[in-house]
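Data availability (excerpt). The following record was deposited with the supplementary files.
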Amino acid sequence: MLLDEEIIRLVGINDRALAILGETDRIIDTRLHVHLPSKGPISVQAYVVYHNAVRGPPCKGGIRMSSDATLQETIQLAEIMTYKAALMDLPFGGGKASIVADSGLPPPEKAVLVREFAHKIRNELTSGAYVPAPDLGTSPREMAVIFGETHMRECVTGKPVGIGGLPGRREATGYGVAVVAEQAARELLDSEFPGLTVGVQGFGNVGSWACTFLAEMGAKVVAVTDVGGGTICWDGIDVGELKKYVGEHGSVDGYGGRHLSNEELFKLDVDILIPAAIGGVVSGKTQTTSRQGSSSRAQMPPPRGRGTKFSRKKGCRWCRIS
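Predicted structure:
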């Protein structure tokens, strides 16, 4: 269970509730047997986890596609979804799914995997027990594949607008990151947002849109990294041009002729640092030399334990967003 003693004490969670939250309701462990043009016949592990359905059904949570995905991570992410739905008073339980495959596969091959996954869990989808959405490694394109299998719009969210998805859904998380970062600047740094320097780890859907809105709000995005490397410009990065560069080169690394590692990003003397990539990147080791004033966390799962303790020792305040 992710809840530690401090959270339990602050929230006032009783023993009965802890007993309910302490165990995962259900785990579906299956394999996807498919043929991919680039790899031939393969067998891929996949999971669906229902952490808690007291507020559901359905259990709500995205589908993560990553070669590093594990059952334990999926369980943690499903638990987080339980708390997110409860905090927002939504009638959903906490769920999550993972497909243990390379997130860099071409779209047609991702579609093959997701189509087989939807076939394997068809009863979960059509009964309303589980409602998926995009997550790391998946997008509205893959949600359209699920809709194509079930022909039920209500069985999946995060679809393209043309088949019933909501306008603005793609930008929403990145916008939320930017809004909370602006609020954190006022309340924690006692500073107006325009002119503050920002470093962002991750330039996928969340990170790229966060950069877009941060720049529009007047912040100076000075450093961005992704899995391939990074770039830095203390005069401020043109986010629109960076997006074009990524479209051509597949990574932010080398933009403007500059290179920056993820490790170097965490050591920069910036006002705001935003981890918008995979979870687990913030640890005691990561934070020992960082000097950020505030960090807005857009990663899943969030930093815990030594990562947040070292952050506080360095004068860094966390604002959790997800």
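Summary of structural features: Confidence is low (pLDDT under 50) at residues 307-311.
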